[in-house]
Structure formats: C-alpha cells, structure tokens
Design a protein that fits this description.
It is a multi-pass membrane protein. The chain is an alpha/beta fold and 493 residues long. It is built from 17 helices and 16 strands. The strands form four sheets. It has a six-stranded mixed β-sheet. Helix 1 packs antiparallel against helix 16, helix 6 crosses helix 15 and helix 11 runs antiparallel to helix 13. Bound molecules: inosine-5'-diphosphate (IDP) and calcium ion.
Length: 493
C-alpha cells in the first residue's frame, strides 16, 4: 500500500506539470499568434494629397503613413504620383476654367488609389509656385481667376479640401529642405542636415544650415524639429528657373535688334524660327522688343560651351553687394557648407547628360563635348525617346546649372563633391510638397517623440524566445528533479 502511495505521488505531480507545460505553451503560442496576426489589422493608414502647381506643369502626389506613427521621422512615404496633362496652371490665364478641369484626370486617379472609406478624412492641398507668382505680378485678375478655378474643382472632390495658394519662395525653399532631411532621417541627429538645391522653370531655391550668423533676416528661418534647433539660410531667385533664364539669355543676345541669332548654347545645325513675343512676354524680361515690325527671329546654334558660359554669365549681376558677401544680384549668401541634395530640374538635366557623380572639371569637359555635338547626331542618338524641346535645350540647361552653382552660389572644385543630384529618397520624390504637407498637418513635432521601448518585431522575437526558454526549463526540471511523466502510472512501473 505504502509503495502504491509513493508511486501515486510522482504520477500526480507529473500530470500537474504536464498540464502546466501545455497550458503555458498554449497561452504563449496564442499570445505570439495574436501579436503577429493582429498587427496588420491594427495598422491603420492615413493619406494626404498635395498638388504641385509648378510653372511648367502640375503634379499630384499621394502620401501615406501608419496612423499611430505619424510623429516619427521618415514614416510618411509617397504612395502615388500623377502628372497632370498639359502645361502649368499659369498658362490658363486666358482660359481660367481650363485650369481646374486640367486636374480632373489626376483627381479621378487619386479616388481610385485611396480607399473610399478614407476619402473624407484625406486632406488635399494645392501649392502654386513661380509661374503663378509671375502671373500675379503681370495680371493679378487672371491669377485670381485661375486660383478660383482650381479651388472650385478641388472643393468638389470627396477629399477634405484644405486650400489652394501661391506659396512664397521662402516657403518653397524651406519645405524642400524639410523634405530631404525628413526622408534622410537627419533631424535630431548629430551628423547634421543636408542643404537643398531646387531648380524649377521659373525660380530656383538654395537652402542650408550655415556655419555663420545669417546677416539678412529675409534669408533666415528658424525651426525646432525633433528636439534640435535649426537656423536655415534660404533664398529663392524668381526668374532664375531654367525656362526664364533661357528667355533672359535670348533677350541679351537679341538686344542688337537682329533677326538672326547665333546661339552658342544650342547645337550646331539647330535652326528654328521663333517669335519675339515668346522671349519678351514675361515680367522677368524688363526690356521691350525694340522693333515690333518684326514678329519672328531665326534661332541658330553654334554649340560652344565656353561661349555659352559667358553668355549665361551676363544674366547675373555680380557687381553690387551691400552685405559681407553675396551670391548674385546683390543677394546676401554665406559660404556654402556641408552636403547638398540637388533635385527637380537639376536632376533631370544632369541625369540626362550623365553628369552626376563626376568632378567639376570632368563635368565641364564632358558637357563641352556634348554641346559641340551636331544637332543631327543628337537627334539620331536620342530623338526617339526624348521630347525635342527638352533635347534641344540640354546643352543650355547643363551650362546654366554649372554657371549657377559655380559662379552664382560659389561652389568650388572641392565643394562640388558635396552635391548629390537626387530624384527620390526611399521612393519619395525630393521636392517641397512633402515638407509642405508635414507642416500643414503638424506632423513634425518640435521635440523628439518618446521612442517605444521595443519595436514590434523585437517584441514578437522576445515572446518566442521566452516561450522556448520556459519550455526548456520545464523539460529540464522534469527530467532531472522530479522525473514526473505525462504517461500513465503503469508505464512508470
Ligand atoms: O524630363 C525633363 N527634362 C528636362 N527638364 C525637365 C524634365 N521634366 C521637367 N523638366 C523641367 O523642370 C522644370 C520644372 O519646373 P517647375 O514646373 O516645377 O517650375 P517652378 O518650380 O519654377 O514653378 C521645368 O523647367 C521643366 O521644363
Ligand atoms: Ca518646382
């Protein structure tokens, strides 16, 4: 009897232990499964739409981010890009209703891309840049009509319309800088931020954190982002986008009143009849066409990089500066410092010319070779896949970029290496739109958000690790201490 009692006790404790092991294992497995499986259900996405109404064209961007992480840096990503067909909204000055209509195709696309249940809560913003700034200067009534037309269209969409405005050059520069540093996750880090160089058709912006006090309040902006203070130098040059500078350069060459223009910035063999009004009909060109009896001029190319550079240098005024130092046109600029991301037309042009990632000297040599290539050869090489207008202008645009960076902003052979020509960072376009949305939705906190103790992935691994550890512990305990078993008492005997 006594022996039987002795045998019953370990069987009883063994059974208890087995039940405990299975119970703990089941609970841990269930917790782990639920943690893993529930995640996508808990992960709610939010969306935002920004329309970039540039001088040459409009583009719609859809951004998305996980709702619970909207204050963490780098969480907002570009989900979709839709280029609006046709020209920029400022080209609708004489047909303002067309401006709003032109956006419809991209709005329809956005409706399909975003879950209909989210339409009502998705903000939509339109920001217009230098094309509309110029139209506002030239013909404010038409500019207002164009803005009303786009407001009208956007307010009738199912999205949450948050306004259509002309943004200032300062905002354009600052938001571009915020975008590249947000995507690069540079805020709040010791390594510092990256400067931003944006080249458009009608204006160009330079924005960076200077290592000197900023002398002019107009060029200074202060931000507190993710727990760090930033004083940023920014300037936007209206009329110094590449399309307006081409007009300025043509104007300088046409001042002699000639109808035949031999242009070193265009390829040899290029010859096109153009209208004077296409050069003079912009507030950027201050002179008027002296001889209005003639409508057209012939634009011929001679393809000479060095002469093209001197022709472009004439559109900059380097002679007056009332501050300690200037870029050009009397605009104060501290010396460039740190790394720079150059995007928009900087990227399109330098990427087409295959001039990214070279020394300044090599860039110049290769561009000179490209410029002296005859127009026939250029057309044969690229004509099939590149629009003729862009193709004819790459020599000019590349030379303008070099002149602006070297003579305008004072980049040297040394600091040239700090410039990266960028299109996208982690799948999102470099440009002002993302920074604009982050600012308007208050998604960039002044202080660093509390970081969670552990990432989701880390938590799952920890749970699994703990469960394995517990099981091993129980197994060892059972084997070496009590030798209890999950089998029947008969087996033990
Ligand atoms: O594929 C391309 N190759 C060359 N230039 C391009 C290409 N795509 C866009 N661009 C140019 O980039 C510039 C974009 O300027 P945008 O329309 O943003 O003007 P803004 O910023 O001055 O208002 C324009 O000059 C346009 O012609
Ligand atoms: Ca632009």
């Amino acid at each position: 009897m006594a022996e039987q009692r002795e045998m019953k006790a370990p069987w009883h404790s063994g059974k208890m232990l087995c039940v405990a092991i299975f119970f703990i294992a089941a609970v841990i497995t269930l917790v782990a499964i639920s943690v893993v499986q529930n995640k996508p259900i808990q992960q709610k996405y939010k969306y935002g739409i920004v329309l970039d109404a540039g001088s040459s064209h409009t583009a719609l961007y859809i951004y998305e981010w996980p709702a619970e992480k909207e204050n963490n840096t780098g969480m907002v990503r570009q989900r979709h890009y839709c280029p609006v067909k046709g020209k920029g909204i400022s080209s609708y000055a004489h047909n303002s209703s067309g401006a709003g209509l032109s956006l419809m195709h991209c709005i329809e696309e956005a409706k399909r891309k975003i879950d209909p249940a989210k339409h009502k809560e998705t903000p939509v913003y339109l920001g217009a840049t230098a094309g509309m700034r110029l139209l506002m200067e030239q013909d404010p009534k038409s500019a207002e009509k164009v803005l009303s037309s786009v407001k009208d269209t956007l307010s009738k969409t199912p999205f949450d319309f948050q306004g259509a405005r002309i943004i200032t050059g300062q905002q354009e520069g600052a938001f571009g800088w915020i975008t590249v540093n947000y995507l690069g996750e540079n805020f709040g880090k010791a390594a510092g931020t990256m400067g931003a160089l944006d080249l458009g058709g009608a204006s160009t912006q330079i924005t960076f954190v200077s290592n000197q006090p900023i002398e002019s309040p107009d060029n200074s902006m202060d931000f507190r982002l993710y727990g760090s203070d930033y004083q940023v130098y920014t300037h936007s040059f209206l009329c110094y986008g590449k399309d307006q500078v081409l007009k300025l350069a043509l104007e300088k060459q046409l001042q002699s009143g000639e109808t035949l223009l031999q242009d070193p910035c265009f390829h040899q063999g290029y010859s096109q009849d153009k209208q004077f009004k296409d050069v003079f009909d912009t507030p950027c060109v201050k002179t008027i066409n002296k001889d209005d009896s003639k409508e057209n001029f012939t634009h011929n190319g001679t393809g000479d990089f060095a002469q093209c550079q001197s022709s472009i240098q004439k559109v900059f005024n380097f002679s007056q500066c009332t501050s300690s130092r200037c870029s050009f046109n009397g605009v104060y600029q501290p010396p460039v410092v740190g790394t720079f991301g150059a995007f928009s037309a900087y990227y399109f042009v330098m990427n087409f010319l295959n001039l990214t990632g070279q020394s300044l000297e090599d860039t110049k040599r290769n561009l000179a070779d490209y410029c002296k290539t005859p127009w026939n050869e250029i057309k044969q090489r690229y004509g099939e896949r590149v629009k003729e207008k862009y193709l004819s202008e790459y020599c000019f645009s590349g030379t303008y970029i070099l002149t602006l960076l070297e003579n305008g902003y004072n980049f040297t052979e040394d600091t040239w290496r700090d410039i990266t020509f960028i299109d996208k960072i982690e799948g999102s376009s470099a440009g002002w739109t993302l920074g604009y949305m982050l600012n308007l939705t208050n998604m960039i906190p002044a202080e660093a958000p509390d970081t969670p103790l552990m990432t989701h992935g880390g938590f799952v691994i920890l749970i699994l690790f703990l469960s394995i550890f517990l099981l091993v512990l129980l197994f060892l305990g059972h084997r070496f201490l009590g030798r209890p078993s999950c089998s029947s008492p008969k087996d033990i005997v």
